[in-house]
Amino acid sequence: xxxxxxxxxxxxxxxxxxxxxxxxxxxxxxxxxxxxxxxxxxxxxxxxxxxxxxxxxxxxxxxxxxxxxxxxxxxxxxxxxxxxxxxxxxxxxxxxxxxxxxxxxxxxxxxxxxxxxxxxxxxxxxxxxxxxxxxxxxxxxxxxxxxxxxxxxxxxxxxxxxxxxxxxxxxxxxxxxxxxxxxxxxxxxxxxxxxxxxxxxxxxxxxxxxxxxxxxxxxxxxxxxxxxxxxxxxxxxxxxxxxxxxxxxxxxx
Length: 253
Description:
The chain is an alpha+beta fold. The protein has two domains: 3-85, K homology (KH) domain (GMP Synthetase, Chain A, domain 3, 2-Layer Sandwich); 89-183, Ribosomal protein S3 C-terminal domain (2-Layer Sandwich), CATH 3.30.1140. It is 46% helix and 23% strand. The strands form two sheets. Strands 5-4-7-6 form a four-stranded antiparallel beta sheet, covered by helices on one side. It has a three-stranded mixed beta sheet with strand order 1-2-3.
């Protein structure tokens, strides 16, 4: 298998696993999955609002998921762990599921879109976008876009920080699609400069760096060596003076 085909098949497998878990764990508030391969097997982290429903009684549900993923999707030695979503309003999967359930209950699409958008922005997101597409008011399909805040769609911040999710719901007019993009508050942008208003704190005299300690040790060693060298020089001078006196005495005789 070539490298291109390998990455395509792996991406398709990840998408299928995501869709299956989304349908299976809808009641648990499914919020996404991350899959990473390790030397011991495949580590799968499931994000959910209610981790207890994912784990099940005595871990029964999570064991069933592990065996199904191993048999159906050929996942080698799956090791599943569950992580709780701290802020559901900043998770794109949760927001998209809420909009889809509101549409299914008969809420007007504009009311559902603006309500969800306000919740996301009040949670502290830098920007958000909700797109609802389908037969909204007429027989011809179109889309309605709800956007607020600062939201970049290209570059490294978009690939690294932006959360994306897409959910489909079946209604009487047809299938409606909900696409959500959220820029979390901890996103870092290269074009945003940060001005430091205060200087860094000065180092206390008690806190000495390793360099100053090393310099002090060298100075102490030099001080200890200098008296020894002076004593040796004095002894050499006395020996020279004694030899000169003996030579003068011999010449006098």
